[in-house]
Amino acid sequence: MKKDKKTVLIVDDSILILERMIPIMEEIENISFVVHAASYQEGVEVLSRLTPDMVLLDINLPDKSGIELLRLIGERHLKTAVLMISNNANIYYRNICKKLGASYFLDKSTDIDLLPSVLSAAC
């Protein structure tokens, strides 16, 4: 049985990370649409008009913590899976994000190569 095509929202202000993630996502056949937001506020605006199947979310955003956006997603978008992708990958942040409903947590500096397998499994 073929899976439905998925929509992914990336909330990250790093152009380098974005440039790495987009080609990876283009290779995953179940992802049909990728949207980008560079800040907490942009993420909120996108989420007000679109319910993505998955959000890739950084903790360090220029205007507010991605953890706050994770909290908001948990309150409003129960069917949206969240993959935290951050340089703040210590156990403290991992536990907070898990408690708030993040499905996955990847360290930007060491786990980026795991992104295709995690996305394929989630999508």
Mean pLDDT: 89
User: Using DSSP, what is the number of strands?
Assistant: 5
Specify the overall morphology. globular
| Share of residues in helices | 40-55%
Strand content: 15-25%
Give the N-to-C terminal Cα separation.
13 Å
Radius of gyration: 13 Å
Structural class: alpha/beta
Number of helices: 5
- Widest beta sheet: strand line-up: 2-1-3-4-5
Spell out the helices and strands N to C.
EHEHEHEHEH
pLDDT below 50 for ≥5 consecutive residues: which ranges? none
Biggest pleated sheet: 5 strands, parallel
Structural write-up:
This protein is an alpha/beta fold. Helix content is 41%, strand content 22%. The chain has five helices and five strands; from the N terminus they run βαβαβαβαβα. A five-stranded parallel sheet has the order 2-1-3-4-5, sandwiched between helices. Helix 2 (40-49) packs parallel to helix 3. It starts with 5 loop residues before the first strand and ends with a helix.
Question: What tags apply to this protein structure?
Answer:
123 residues, single chain, alpha/beta, 5 strands, five-stranded parallel β-sheet
List the helices and strands and how they pair.
Blueprint: E1 6-11, H1 15-26, E2 31-37, H2 40-49, E3 54-57, H3 66-76, E4 81-86, H4 91-99, E5 104-107, H5 115-122
Parallel strand pairs: 1-2, 1-3, 3-4, 4-5
Question: Would you summarize the structure shown here?
Answer:
This protein is α/β, with parallel strands linked by helices and 123 residues long. The protein is built from five helices and five strands, in the order βαβαβαβαβα. It has helices spanning 15-26, 40-49, 66-76, 91-99, 115-122, and strands at residues 6-11, 31-37, 54-57, 81-86, 104-107.
